[in-house]
């Protein structure tokens, strides 16, 4: 539960921190029961700082699972705000007429990828990209994914729906550091058969809150690559229901790691996908 105090000042809470800069802002944070509290924060405060602030004020047990989420109700999507991200900067990207909001709640899988990376990447979904030479075992592939400029490919089937159409079609997708592609010829990964879908410059990865109801997707498990400030997007959905959770998690985590470690900064647009 959030504290009952209707307005929280960060100055009063983080006594061990140095004095705040004069530039501050006010954000509203919701709890799981949809109650909200206004918080005065410095302009450079991060998501991790906000979590620590609410953990302190609400006397929560810090089990490293408390997370700040960004939710976009009109698109029925949300994402985990990464620890290092500026919350004020996230909020500044919202339109004046939007109903975007911040949620403070637990996400037990927040750091699981870094604790048990091999659990998230079945061998049949991971392979060395064409940019990488040599043969590696599964463990080495994951290490390469995390620590070098090249990374293993993540591949599998997704359903996609073209704009203006109600039906979904199955495609074989390939995720590389350079972007997301689908094959126009079965499971072929030859360059001439791969069609570009999305790159990861200045993008965020969201999950769908209600894929079936809102997007008519085959499953409720989905993700979205939302390029900032663009309103159009293309939904994708998981094909193999028996492995939907693993498959969805693989793509989401892979995309998130790529977005946070490539350092690419280019143009903005929106591309949601449903798994």
From TrEMBL:
Gene3D superfamilies: Phosphatidylinositol 3-kinase Catalytic Subunit, Chain A, domain 1 (3.10.20.90), Pleckstrin-homology domain (PH domain)/Phosphotyrosine-binding domain (PTB) (2.30.29.30). This is Growth factor receptor bound protein 14. GO terms for biological process: insulin receptor signaling pathway; negative regulation of insulin receptor signaling pathway. It comes from the Eukaryota. Residues 23-109 form the Ras-associating domain. PANTHER family: GROWTH FACTOR RECEPTOR-BOUND PROTEIN (PTHR11243), GROWTH FACTOR RECEPTOR-BOUND PROTEIN 14 (PTHR11243:SF22). InterPro entries: GRB/APBB1IP, PH-like_dom_sf, PH_APBB1IP, PH_domain, RA_dom, Ubiquitin-like_domsf. It holds the Pfam family PH. It comes from Cyprinus carpio carpio. One of its GO terms (cellular component) is cytoplasm. SMART domains: RA.
């Amino acid at each position: 539960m959030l504290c009952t105090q209707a307005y929280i000042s960060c100055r009063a809470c983080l006594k061990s921190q140095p004095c705040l800069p004069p530039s501050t802002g006010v954000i509203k944070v919701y709890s799981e029961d949809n109650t909200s509290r206004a918080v005065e924060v410095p302009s450079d405060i991060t998501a991790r700082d906000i979590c620590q602030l609410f953990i302190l004020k609400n006397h929560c047990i810090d089990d490293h699972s408390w997370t700040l989420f960004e939710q976009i109700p009109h698109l029925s999507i949300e994402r985990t705000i990464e620890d290092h991200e500026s919350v004020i900067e996230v909020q500044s990207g919202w339109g004046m007429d939007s109903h975007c909001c911040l949620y403070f709640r637990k996400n037990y899988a927040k750091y699981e990828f870094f604790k048990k990376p091999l659990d998230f990447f079945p061998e049949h979904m991971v392979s060395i990209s064409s940019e990488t030479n040599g043969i590696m075992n599964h463990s080495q592939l994951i290490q390469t994914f995390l620590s070098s400029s090249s990374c293993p490919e993540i591949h599998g089937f997704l359903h996609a729906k073209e704009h203006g159409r109600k039906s979904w079609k199955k495609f074989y997708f390939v995720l590389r550091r350079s972007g997301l592609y689908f094959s126009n010829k079965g499971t072929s990964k030859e360059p001439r058969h791969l069609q570009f879908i999305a790159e990861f410059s200045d993008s965020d990865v969201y999950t769908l809150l209600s894929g079936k109801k809102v997007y008519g997707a085959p499953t409720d498990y989905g993700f979205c690559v939302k390029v900032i400030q663009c309103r159009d997007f293309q939904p994708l959905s998981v094909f193999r229901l028996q492995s939907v959770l693993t498959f969805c998690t693989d793509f989401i985590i892979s995309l998130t790691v790529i977005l946070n470690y490539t350092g690419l900064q280019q143009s903005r647009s929106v591309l949601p996908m449903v798994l």
